[in-house]
Amino acid sequence: MGMDASEVFHTIWDQLAGKISEQRRTRQTEMCEGTTLLIEKNGHLEETYFDWKLIPVTDDEGEVKGSYGIPLDRTLEVICSRQNDCIQRLARHTGTANNMKELWSTLLTGLSYNSKDIPFALLYSMDEQLGISSAPSKPSYPCHLEGTIGISADRIIEQEYIDLSCDIDGFAPTMLKALKCDSMLILESNDPSLHKLLNGLGLKGHALPSEQFAIIPIKDDCRIAAFIVVGLNPYRRCNSKFCEFLQLVADIAAPQVSRARLSEEVARHNELAKRAQLDRRRSDMRFSRFAEWSIVGLAVIDVEGKILYANDAWYKFSGLSPADQQDLSWFDSVVPDDVALLRAWQRRVLDEKKGGTFQIRSKEPFRRGHMSSDHRTGICACYSDLNESNEVESVMVFTMDISELKWTEQQLISRSKALEESEKKWRNYAEHCPFGICRTDGEGYVQYGNKAWLSFYGFKPDEIPDTPQPWLPWVREDYVQPCKEFFAKLQRGPVLASVEFQLVNKTYTISGGDKTVTNGAYVVATGFSQFKEDGTIDHMDFWVTDISGQKMAVKVLTDKMEEAIRSKTQQERFMDMISHEIRNPLSAVLHCSEEIIESIKKGSAALDYAFRSEAVCDSGKSGRNILKKQINSALDAANTILYCVQHQKQIVDDVLTVSKLDSDLLVVSPIPVQPMALVRSSLKIFDAELKMTDIKLKIVEDDSLSRLGLDWVLLDPNRFLQIVINLVTNAVKFTKLSKVREIVVTASAQRHRPLERELGVEFVPQRYSPATPVSATSAHTDLQDFVHPESDVFLSFSVKDTGKGLTKDEKALVFNRFAQASPKTHIEYGGSGLGLFIARQITEMLGGEIGMASSPGSGCTFAFYIKTQKCGSPVSTEPVIRLSRSLSITADGTPIASEEEEEGDSSPEASPGSHTPRHGAPPLKVLVVEDNLVNQKVLCKQLRNRDFLVKAANHGRDALDAVQERRGAQPAQGGSPFDVILCDIEMPVMDGIEFTKEIRRLEAEGELDGHVPILGVTANVRSKQVSGAIEVGMDGVTTKPYRIEELIAHIAGVCAKQ
Predict the structure, then answer these.
(1) What band does 167 get if pLDDT is binned at 50, 70 and 90?
(2) Which of 700, 720, 736, 910 is deepest in the core (most CB within 10 A)?
(3) Please, which residues have CB within 8 angstroms of residue 746's CB and are 6 or more apart in sequence?
(4) In terms of Cα–Cα distance, which of 1044, 161, 282, 273 is closest to 587?
(5) Burial class (CB within 10 angstroms; exposed 0-12, middle 13-18, buried 19+) of 690
(6) What DSSP string describes 862-908?
(7) By three-state DSSP, how is residue 424 classified?
(8) What pLDDT score was predicted for residue 462?
(9) Which residues face 850 on adjacent strands?
(10) Residue 716: CB partners within 8 Å, gap ≥ 6?
């Protein structure tokens, strides 16, 4: 209201304005007919048609001041008139067509008159047929574009041909749908099935001619002959009236299709008739040849059913003979059960003059490869052949052999039944399967679960919660998130995934004897997701397996393993404790013995000086002799103490070596050594014992050593000497009670592995695998300092003694662990029974063998060989091994040579203070940290006797206080409060490791100046413990028991580095 009419009705204002102008002139009511308006209804513009009655509005003087328009809606009338006109034109045009080509052209011409209701159209003709390359049961639907409305011809090239059986992702499925439902389809413009068709025509977005499209099938005798894809009026939504109009188009075209085809057929027959008249014989010949070559059976029968003509394909199908044609009837070609069917179709053709198709079975069996049947099956089509009087003259019968298709159909039915049986079987299998089987949809709603799956969560078949993933409440809380991630992974793609989780409120228990073990209930779920073609999830399958037994086994095995590790650790601690407790008192005994010896030596020297004067009376000489005798007795006792300590230490070392062999911790580290020099120097440790027992030790070098030039070889000196010393120790033990006391050590070399007869012994069977050498990173000589090793050689050593010898039974035992020749042996000779066992094991580790030869009363010969390599002399010739009975190691892994090695055979009168501070140099300040008060007292006394300034502490905390106290007492002097710290490792309150860490921390933070050398003194000799002490900051480690001179040499070494 109140708006300018020319703006509101701008589309029809020209029509209204003329009538209004005429009205002002005539002052009469005017009629304006046939106006068109586009009015928006339900979101769409719709065309409407109105007639207007314009009534003049006048003033008192009769002047027209306005017009009152009354609209009359004539939309339906106009549209119906337009559509009726289209239908009439369509009927007139299609009625003139004489063939299919003209029919499609006239059909499009008739529709084009109604461009408003049908602005766009595609006409596809269709001919259903069987493809040559396709399976017989798969029909092909080729469609050809016959013409268009509303689109130019240059856009239709890609869409000119469509095969509905191949084009599965475009417009074809929708056309097939229309084909199957046999009715018209209405599609919106945004329907996905139209995209490929419209995009191929270049119609997108605003270029679309319509908002709705219709697929109209055109039938011919119950078969669809064509499709019309119609774009509907863009300004009218499709309704029932519009559908009636479209259906009427199809109804008009349908009979015209039959008529056009009939016209084509009539024209063809007329053409054939003309040709037959021109050349009847040639035509008959061609027909006959066509019939004979045709794979379709062709027969012509009279009204009685007698065979007038049949080709070879028909005779082959029916199993009849052409020779009997005069007596054959159509009914003879089928099985008796199908005769009634033939008679019925014959009556129908004769009475109704209409044909049709049906299935028949012949009497001829079907055989083709693995396919077989008692009868051949065919599709039969019969049509009436009319004469000029329109009466049935004969019946034409076409038969196509579909036995293979029929056999396939039967197989399909059979297999479908078998599939049903199989499904039933597998369902039964799933129900009784011990594994849980479950199927869900994409959201996790359960579709199926077998009994085992239900039992895991306590569900009943008809009481499964209607929630996604209903198993989550039965999953332990810390496993819920992995289960959710597992399900999400399956939702993302078709993958196989698994997850383990524990169930709540369920346990797994096993019992054995009087012991019961309980663990949680565990399952493993494996899932796979199946997706549809559109990318959505079709279903998910899950297999759930109870793994509580496996988890229980892992738990039990883990507990057993941890128990074994604890047991092994306890055993090692026990061995360490035994070693510690045995070695600690040995140190005190050893030190006391040394002190006794030194004191007696000094006293003896003083007595010699006191009684050296010629003025001494004879009675003085007697007193001197008495004192000499007592001193010698004390010396003998002290040497006995030393021997006992040495013997006890050897037993402890043997036990530790066996422990390493059992734990596979003994390694081989070859370095260049001079084997004979090594043997000669190492055997000097037996000089005192040999002298005391009056045993002669002879070392013989075979000519083979010089002939092969074996001056330097690669071997592990520690392991090699362990064998030699054990054999010599054994020989000394059994020879010292013999009348003839002699030991001969013979060395030789060979390039081949020595035989038993060459060494004169019988080897014991090997039982230990050769060791793989490790790089001697901790050795004093680097491998780059010597020439590359040459080929393998074999060093042989034999130790022959004059002992009592062994019997055959005794020889069988001597190389076993903790074994001796007889129980009497330990009583007479002592020992642990480990020496020869260790020698055997190490020999085999070095790639050699060991054996013996002996008989009662003739002594024993022990011989062994090891594999080594000849090498050049190293650049550095410093000692590579210490020959003392204790172990001293510096922080860089270098062994410290003992006093015995440096000085060789020192005289008893040698000065005991050879390693004390030099004359004029200030004495060294030593802090002794030892929790064993006896060892502490003896060690401090020994060090003070050698001019050291000594302070003692009972444990690491006392030592730390002493260091800080000494530091506070001399702040101005600078430097370290002590020159060296001797620290036990195993101590109460604060052990040596923690003490060393604290000292190094104070030095790093600047609270202590310089670097205080710390020497570890311990009874634990395991390499792991020694290396652990070096790693925390100790400058070296000396193991108990030790000789005081060895300790002093170690102190001098670390102090010299400062």
Answers:
(1) low
(2) 720
(3) 700, 702, 797, 798, 800
(4) 1044
(5) buried
(6) EEEEEEEEE-PPPS--S--S--SSS-EEETTSPBPPPHHHHHSS--T
(7) helix
(8) 83
(9) 864
(10) 668, 669, 670, 671, 773, 846
% of the chain at pLDDT higher than 70: 78
**Strand ranges in 317-376 using DSSP code E only, listed in sequence order:** 356-361, 366-368, 371-373
Structure tokens at 1051: 């102190």
* Alpha-carbon span 23 to 34, nearest angstrom: 18
Strand order in the sheet with 30-41: 30-41, 44-58, 64-73
Among 23-27, 176-180, 655-659, 685-689, whose mean pLDDT is lowest? 655-659
CA separation for the pair 301, 246 (Å, rounded): 44
**Residue 503, token pair as written in the block:** 């169930």
pLDDT tens string 960-1018: 999 888 776 665 555 578 899 999 988 888 999 999 999 999 989 988 888 899 999 88
Alpha-carbon Rg of the chain, whole angstroms?
A: 60
Calculate mean pLDDT across residues 913-926: 66
CB 816 within 8 A of CB 639: no
Distance in angstroms (rounded) separating the CA atoms of residues 1015 and 992: 10
Q: Which pLDDT score, from 0 to 100, does residue 650 have?
A: 64
Report d(CA 727, CA 399) in Å as an integer. Answer: 110
Question: How many Å is the maximal CA-CA distance in the chain?
Answer: 193
Quote the CA–CA distance of 1052 and 979 in Å, as a whole number.
Answer: 10
Q: For the chain, how many residues are written?
A: 1058
Q: Confirm whether pTM is higher than 0.85.
A: no
pLDDT digits (tens, 9 = 90+) for 309-321: 888 888 888 888 8
Distance of CA 779 to the CA centre of its chain: 44
Is 262 exposed, middle or buried (CB count within 10 Å of its CB: 0-12, 13-18, 19+)?
Answer: exposed
- Predicted confidence (pLDDT) at residue 820 exceeds the cutoff of 70: no
Query: Across residues 769-775, what is the average pLDDT?
Result: 47
pLDDT reading at 888 higher than 90: no
Identify the band that residue 830 occupies on the pLDDT scale cut at 50, 70 and 90: very low
In whole angstroms, what is the distance from residue 335 CA to residue 357 CA?
A: 18
Q: Is 522 within 8 Å of 547 (Cβ atoms)? A: yes
The tokens describing 119, both together, are 């602005």
CA–centroid distance for 964 within its chain: 59
Q: How confident is the model at residue 914 (pLDDT cuts 50, 70, 90)?
A: very low
Coil, strand or helix: which one is 636?
A: helix
Backbone angle region of 709, left / alpha / beta, with phi > 0 → left and psi within -120 to 50 → alpha: left
Neighbours of 183 (CB within 10 A): 12
CA distance linking residue 715 with residue 458, whole number of Å: 70
Among residues 136, 231, 245, 234, the alpha carbon closest in space to that of 186 is found at 231
Structure tokens at 469: 């993933």
- Are the beta carbons of 889 and 1026 closer than 8 angstroms? yes
- Are 445 and 468 contacting, i.e. CB atoms less than 8 angstroms apart? yes
Residue 239, token pair as written in the block = 């309704």
Q: In this model, does residue 277 exceed pLDDT 60?
A: yes
Give me 971's structure tokens. Answer: 């702040």
- Cα dihedral across residues 460, 464, 465, 469: positive or negative: positive
Which letter does DSSP use for residue 660 in this model?
A: H
Q: Any residues with CB less than 8 A from the CB of 219 and at least 6 apart, and which? A: 182, 225, 250, 254, 257
Cβ within 8 Å of residue 584, ≥6 positions away:
932, 935, 1019, 1040
Structure tokens at 344: 């019925």
Task: Give, for 348, the enclosing helix (H) or strand (E).
Answer: helix 339-352
Q: What is the pLDDT of residue 495?
A: 87
Query: Residue range 286-315: average pLDDT?
Result: 82
C-alpha to C-alpha distance for 242 and 248, rounded to whole angstroms: 10
Beta strands in 164-211 (DSSP E): 185-188
Q: What average pLDDT does this structure show over 1006-1032?
A: 84
DSSP-derived secondary structure letter, 283: H
